[in-house]
Design a protein that fits this description.
Layout lengths: L1 H16 L14 E6 L5 H6 L3 H8 L2 E6 L9 H10 L13 E3 L3 E2 L2 E2 H9 L7 E3 L2 H9 L9 H8 L3 E5 L17 H5 L5 E2 L1 E3 L5 E3 L7 E3 L1 H11 L4 E6 L1 H9 L5 H23 L7 E6 L11 E6 L6 E4 L8 E3 L3 H8 L14 E4 L4 H44 L4 H23 L5 H4 L1 H22 L6 H19 L25 H22 L1 H20 L7 H19 L5 H23 L8 H12 L2 H17 L8 H15 L1 H10 L3 H18 L5 H20 L5 H8 L14
């Protein structure tokens, strides 16, 4: 207990020694903020269409790809504006999201404000209100994200700001009644569902026969409403609603007509932006351009730009992404508050936009963001197929391995050995593929790279490394581990937009080690530790194995590199289990308690170290500790419940679930029909039991502590299955079999076979 208290005191001392502001850049400030919402706007459209006002603004701004991921995979307008307001992932309600009104309007033949009072008990005399408030409150109270929809509006009003919303994406479905699409009201509403000022009624619209639904924004009316709202400390959200209307009208128009309507909506939105910019003073006011949700049926990144006093052109990032060029929707509310020097509510998980670097010239930044989005979409289209093929390959591998074991032909065994090495080599190749433009070359080139590359690496390892039976496997697993560790130490460029890495469209992670990369690291490191201990032999072999595991743990857990909370909590007991078996220490209740305590200490140390860094540099671990400090351990409980729910949700639908029966079937076959071959494997690799114990711990905790669920142990089992197939077949090959049978040395140093096949 004394040691535990010392650790806590050391953590507190570190936090005190390095205050949050240390090294942090000064946050920009503004007198007023224009939030120009461009729903569904992509970087491809920003680059391809003639939009002079937007282009000029982007060239003067810090820009980035905006990840709009809310609670569900596909973000709806209500989801987008609710998440923007909450500063935390939030859910909307399609039935009520669009029901925003001005005082004096009617709804279903009744005064809309009277309906609002009836539903909420709040009387409204001026400004705007939304009938979606009860549904939004109920939905988000039942979620595990802690979202408070209305947090931004409350903070603005308490901070003396004057929020207003202007826009209407209403349609008519070619005939009455009106289809209300005024979700923008949710973006700045307070906790009572109110916005003090703005315009959202049909008075903002004008008839236009060729436009979607025959309606479009009246630019003059919007400009007039903006002039009324653009007061001191104003935050005015203006929605380019023609873009939203064009998107919802797509299914009703021909391909040629929808292209014309989209182009006109973009050009008119650009003209509207130009009118508003004439009223904004660049020396004192800020302009924030965002796309709060993507086009229907898509997950693309939208446009984000910030022009504010003191902000130079360049790329955006936030403490949430920690990667230049990317920000998230939950970062928008903290950015608005920061610009007006208003404290961010504790309920907001987002952090303000920051300029992270130039990113080259304006001509470089915008095409790069478009390309990155294309890579993300291509990756998202490929990931399920690659995972499925990998699982099927594992099944095929053990089937042909069983056939090879039942034959006397060494040639067939050699072929399966190469195939098992090739299957493993495909995993690091999926990351190395991130350095090549396969989104342009297409799927055939990608599959050729993986299959031919994996086969070539497997064949080369088998042919060139013959001194010890497991040397080829050591080489391939070492390649897997080395690629991932080196990559994360240089900024993880190969993690982004690769099939077993992560993508900004999913927005689970933007930096460090992803869950599936962790699965490969944990599996390969555990197996390598057992192999190295046997290969080197004696205490020296054990020292080499434990040194490897220690280095992996440091890289994975460090906030500077892996920043992997779930991985660190998994690796400490996993590597401890391996160490105990290698050192001959019996695992008792006392050792389990010690390991648990050590895991807690590592977790606390990593958290305190991260918390001691400047706010804009903290990982999600530091932000978790910050939330615990503000809200108590309820914040930690929320994270645990959310991860558990995510794991259980994908258990029955994930292709990785199929990996369990595939691997267990092969193991049961070996136990039932070929127990002698497992015994032979233990004779060649005496320390394989240590790897086996560590693997079981890693797979179990990896499932429980990472929100990718069954994918983590599934991919671990894939690494283990291919490794087991190789080892069982390889130790069956002559002369290994004869030498093991006739000259096995049972000493702790293990067996060192020097003959060549």
């Amino acid at each position: 207990m004394k040691r535990f208290l010392l650790v806590l005191l050391a953590g507190i001392a570190l936090v005190s020694a390095f205050p949050d502001a240390a090294g942090a850049e000064a946050a920009p400030r503004a007198e007023r903020v224009l939030v120009f919402s461009m729903p569904t706007m992509s970087w491809a459209e920003a680059n391809d269409f003639d939009l002079p006002h937007l282009s000029a603004l982007l060239d003067e701004s810090a820009i980035g790809g905006l990840s709009t991921r809310a609670v569900d995979r596909r973000t709806t307008p209500g989801d987008g504006y609710a998440t923007l307001n909450a500063g935390t992932r939030a859910d909307g309600d399609d039935d009520f999201d669009g029901l925003g009104f001005e005082v004096g309007e009617s709804y279903l033949g009744q005064p809309a404000d009277a309906v609002f009072t009836r539903r909420t008990g709040t009387t409204v005399d001026e400004g705007l209100f939304t009938l979606a408030l009860p549904a939004l409150s109920e939905i988000n109270d039942d979620l595990d994200f802690g979202a408070e929809v209305g947090a931004l509006g409350d903070a603005l009003r308490e901070g003396g700001a004057h929020p207003a919303v202007i826009g209407s994406a209403d349609g008519t479905n070619e005939e009455p009644p009106t289809v209300y699409a005024r979700q923008a009201v949710i973006g700045l509403m307070d906790g009572a569902g109110l916005v003090p000022a703005g315009r959202v009624s049909d008075d903002l619209l004008e008839p236009a026969p060729e436009a979607p639904y025959g309606l479009r924004l009246d630019e003059q009316e919007v400009a007039t409403a903006f002039d009324d709202a653009w007061v001191d400390r104003a935050v005015v959200l203006v929605e380019a609603s023609d873009l939203a209307r064009a998107d919802t009208y797509r299914p009703l128009a021909t391909a040629e007509q929808r292209t014309r309507q989209r182009q006109e909506a973009l050009e008119r939105s650009d003209e509207l932006l130009g009118r508003l910019l004439e009223r904004v003073d660049p020396a004192t006011d800020a302009v924030l351009v965002i796309g709060p949700y993507p086009a229907t049926g898509s997950d693309h990144l939208t446009v984000a730009a910030l022009r504010a006093p003191g902000v130079e052109p360049g790329l955006l990032k936030s403490a949430v992404t920690r990667r230049s060029g990317f920000v998230t929707l939950v970062d928008v509310a903290p950015t608005i508050l920061s610009l007006l020097d208003i404290d961010r509510p504790d309920s907001m998980e987002g952090r303000r936009f920051e300029r992270s670097g130039t990113g080259g010239s304006a001509e470089d930044r915008r095409p790069w963001l478009e390309q990155t989005n294309a890579e993300a979409q291509w990756r998202d289209d490929m990931v399920a197929l690659v995972a499925t093929v990998f699982v099927v390959a594992q099944l095929a591998l053990w089937v042909i391995a069983v056939r090879a074991l039942n034959r006397e032909s060494s040639r067939s065994r050699h072929a399966v050995e190469v195939a098992s090495l090739a299957v493993l080599a495909v995993l690091p190749l999926t990351y190395l593929a991130g350095a090549l433009p396969f989104h342009e070359w297409g799927a055939p080139a990608y599959w050729a790279f993986l299959i031919l590359g994996g086969g070539l690496l497997g064949y080369a390892a088998q042919r060139l490394l013959r001194r010890w039976p497991a040397d080829p496997l050591l080489a391939v697993l070492g390649l897997m581990l080395g690629v991932l560790l080196v990559d994360v130490m240089v900024g993880a460029p190969l993690q982004l937009n690769t099939v077993f890495g992560y993508t900004p469209t999913v927005a689970g992670r933007f930096a460090g080690i992803g869950n599936l990369a962790f699965a490969q690291i944990a599996a390969s490191a555990t197996i390598l530790a057992g192999l190295l201990a046997s290969r080197v032999g004696g205490r020296r072999g054990i020292a080499v194995a434990l040194g490897l595991l220690g280095a992996v743990l440091v890289i994975d857990a460090s906030p500077l590199w892996g920043s992997d909370v779930g991985g660190a909590l998994t690796m400490v007991p996993t590597f401890a289990g391996v160490a105990f078996v290698l050192l001959g220490i019996r695992i008792r209740l006392r050792t389990v308690i010690v390991v648990g305590f050590t895991t807690l200490v590592v977790f606390l140390l990593a958290g305190f170290l991260d918390l001691a860094r400047p706010e804009e540099s903290r990982t999600h671990l530091g932000r978790l500790f910050e939330d615990i400090g503000n809200d108590g351990f309820g914040a930690f409980e929320t994270v645990v419940i959310r991860k558990l729910g995510a794991n259980l949700a994908v258990l029955a639908s994930s292709e990785w679930t199929l990996m369990l029966p595939v691997v267990f079937a092969f193991i049961l076959y070996l136990i039932w029909r070929a127990p002698g071959r497992l015994q032979r494997l233990q004779e060649v690799v005496p320390q394989e039991r240590a790897a086996r114990v560590g693997f079981v711990i890693a797979a179990t905790l990896g499932f429980a502590l990472n929100d990718s669920g069954i994918a983590v142990p599934g991919l671990m089992l894939g690494v283990m299955n291919a490794s087991l197939v190789y080892l069982v077949l390889r130790t069956e090959d002559p002369p290994w079999k004869a030498e093991i049978d006739e000259a096995h040395d049972p000493e702790p140093d293990g067996v060192r076979v020097s003959s060549r096949p």
